[in-house]
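ASSEMBLY PREDICTION REQUEST
Request ID: AP-0331
Submitted by: J.K., bench scientist
Number of chains: two
Total residues: 390
Priority: normal
Notes: Please return the full assembly, not individual chains.
Input sequences:
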Amino acid sequence: METFDDMKNVWNKGRSEIADSAALDWNAMDKYIAAGMKKVRSSMMKFFWGTFVYHIVIYALLTHVFIRSFGDGKLMFISLAGILLYAPFTAFMIKKFKMMCNPDSDSGKNVKQFLSYQHKQLNDFYRFKKWFDWLGVPATALILVLIIFSLYVTGGPVAHPVAIVLSTIAVIAVLVPFIRSENLKGFVEPLNKLESLIDDMDKSTELQVPDQGQGTGK
Amino acid sequence: MKNTKVISDPEFKEQFLEELNRDIGIVHRVCNSFYNTADSAREDLFQEIMYQLWKSYPRFNGDAKFSTWMYRVAFNTAITHSKKQDREPEKTEFQDNHYPESVTEKQDEQEKLRLLYSAIRTLKEIDRMIILLWLEATSYSEIAGITGLSTSNISVRLVRIKTLLKTKLENH
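STATUS: Completed
Returned structure:
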């Protein structure tokens, strides 16, 4: 292929071959739709579990402790406080999650708009998640430690303040690598990729316009 | 304007299929520009584009040509799809398979096309879209409508991409 015309000739011959052989019927289309729906559901559920697993564990644990220690005011208070602390986080996170997985996100937008929209949705959710990680994860660790000390350590949390602090730090230290890895895979890497694509599109404005007499790509 | 409520309407489905089949080659060419035909990710991308087209069709209101809308959906899906892939498909490698010494004219054309796609896949995603649209003889204003870039930007980028592509093919 020595010239651009050669490229176009090769391309056009390939074009006509595809056009001749590729018509779809409804049986094929139904399979694609079913497979596509299954894939979307599965990836959303994977993301949902990755994001909300802490919430589910916390609610299950706190409810269990609340029921089991019914009558023990201190434990009931800790578990109820935990539930009340978590409820707004969960509600807000679900709202953000729904916005991120917005079915109205129209893939018929132009590429630049689509990329910006995807970036905004993902970044909004990630910003909130980071905020939650900083506040919610230490709170979760503290609640877990308080419950364990109340249930299984003689004297309870009041008798062991230093141990409470150290145990909370230890629990946070265990959780941090998981959270970091989840954030990296689910948010940082996809956001970086989107940013590099958007930057690449913006960068084209910095290029010098050469002498081009034509108004079309034809 | 079409409505999501009529998505199961047989007439609506027929209309979609008719329009889709008229320009189905677009989807194949976009897929080939992102993945090798032997790559299972190519079939996966094709399937995902089909699903996105069907899902987005009720919102297609005829403001643009059906083919323009199809390019947008296909490119947007391909970019998101390649973003999800763990490995980068032929990001830096220009596939250099054996080029048979004795070939028929048709085989020769197919080999040239394969090389062209292979060279396109080494370009950055945005550049792949622009060169594909140029090869399809799409006007600058239509490329602008599909990508969201200005016509002057497209003009600038095309010069660079075409030269880059030509160099890749010449050095092969």
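REVIEWER COMMENTS: Confidence is low (pLDDT under 50) at residues 208-218 of chain A.
SIGN-OFF: pending second reviewer
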